[in-house]
Amino acid sequence: MRTKAVLICGLLLPFAAHAGVKAVWAVNDGEKIDRDDRHHPSKSANSAWDGKRIAIFGARNEIVAFQVVVEADEAGIRSLSARLPELVHRTDKIVYAPPERDPTRYAGRPIQLFSVNYMDVVKPTAASWIYLLGTPSAPRHPTGWKPVQLVPENARRGKGGFPVTVAPSRNQALWIEVYLRRDLPAGIFHGNIELDIEGRKRTLPLELEVLNFTLPDENSMNAMVFQESEQGVLYQGRNMDEEYHRFAHRQRIELVQAYDEDVVQRFIGRFRGGDFTRDQGYEGPGEGQGNRIVPRTFYGPGKAFDERGSAWKISDAWMTFLDHTLPGAITFVYAPDEPSLEMFPYIHKLADNLHSNPGPGRRLPLFVTHEYVQDLDGAIDIWDSGPQGYAIGKAEEERAKGRDYWVYNGGRPWGGAIVIDAPATDARATIWGCFKHGIPVYFYWHGDHWRHNTQKPGNRIQNVWANPITFDNRGQPDKPVEDQNYANGDGVLFYPGEEKLHPAEDRGIAGPCSTIQLANFRRGLQDHQYLTLARKAGLNLLVRESLEQVVPKMFSDAGKTVGFSEHGDDYERARYRLGKALALK
After folding, report:
1. CA torsion sign, 41 to 47 to 53 to 54?
2. Tens of pLDDT along 535-549?
3. Packing angle, helices 241-250 and 229-236, rounded to 10
4. Helix H segments across 267-391?
5. Which of 252, 268, 276, 316 could form a disulfide with 282, with the two C-beta atoms 3.0–4.6 Å apart?
6. 568-583 and 540-550 helices cross at what angle (nearest 10)?
7. Is 548 within a domain?
8. What span, in angstroms and rounded, lies between the C-alpha atoms of 244 and 513?
9. Model pTM greater than 0.85?
10. Which range among 182-191, 448-457, 530-539 shows the weakest confidence by mean pLDDT?
């Protein structure tokens, strides 16, 4: 049979003439490689690839990830799959085990493989709070076939399950994650990525360096993501909370909703850690650790706090319950969401009803999604603004007065834009900015916003696997054109693994499918632990240098252009320096 030599970014390998392969290369988890981007600058070399081998690193109790990109030639590839059977150290090994139908059962599965699913972004996001097209802060290449979902290898054939097909002259990324156990020895683990390309086997050597320290199970900052159980029921046909919370815990985020005493008791394992043990199929960061964020209300206060008497009674009971059941929990009453000036008198009334309480309920904070304004001074215990409204100096003043100031969502150039058409590292940069400016909690407004927002006229049931636009308020007759917006992937950090409303999109996965955006949030939250450990270890100069190299200007420091890195290599270089220094402590 005829063969031809194929240049694989510096590595010349023989492939069968019909194999359909133009190039194979690898890249870190901080890049989005478009399906038709055949000249990406990371192709020849990057932090995870020197042209011949893959090299990654991490601490114990950390999830590390990388991508193998297979570029098809003009013939395309009919069948592509990958394996990573094991990673071997001279005294230990990390061994692959196949996934169950529910891939959130992580116990005994340190190696996980996914195919990357692409979505055609025809129109860039048009929402001024996310970014403005045509300005220096907008993403440089917002349209095209964008990598979005991470589909487990055991999904349905033709819907991301292995083997996958690759269209002619297109890329297909395979995403690999490795969890580094707490008891692993430090040093180099060796393995091989085994590619099966139309029945022909090729290998890529892989080196994993396990650094000699361990990331804590407890997060060094909190990330809360709103989740609606009803969305899972609507799209997957059943309640999937158990799977989704297990999945979220693995990403080091917390899925949040409103709670009362009865609901907390019903899900007490979620907060005391029993849901995240090996007996429950969980293995990974935060094993045995419970969620910490227990909001009393969400997306509004309801009516329970409108009158002083009921406000005192309910807040006293709630805080007493938390003191005994979940001491140290983060809780709040959620004021009217993104309130207008007309709502300010009502917010003052809520604040007075809470703050006047002589009992334990006085400690129940009032939370608002709004930047600091003088008109609400003294009424708000927790401000939570978008990156544009995060005034660094004012936040420090509020904390000095015993209040707090968080950040939610995203928007360029002040912070990352958490949408499909922004770089992968935007989510990671947001968490680095939180570390730099002492922000203890990040809030993302929705994780499973599969059904369109209420502002959208007409049918709100969207096909999220087929249409990248997930926020849409166009078509409102009472709003001017400039106030009608849409966004790609906004509010969707994970996708339904089963799809009862659109059966053609059913992946056959009994749980969620992650995204590159969420993977980079996880990467940022793990980076936050590196920075926190380094600061505790007295590596202050190295911490400052890392922050100045990666996120020199964010929030109110931002100018007209993005003031944080958009390249995974920059973050990886900083993380490696921090990790090597920590390994010596």
Report:
1. negative
2. 999 999 999 999 999
3. 120
4. 268-272, 308-325, 344-355
5. 276
6. 170
7. no
8. 10
9. yes
10. 448-457
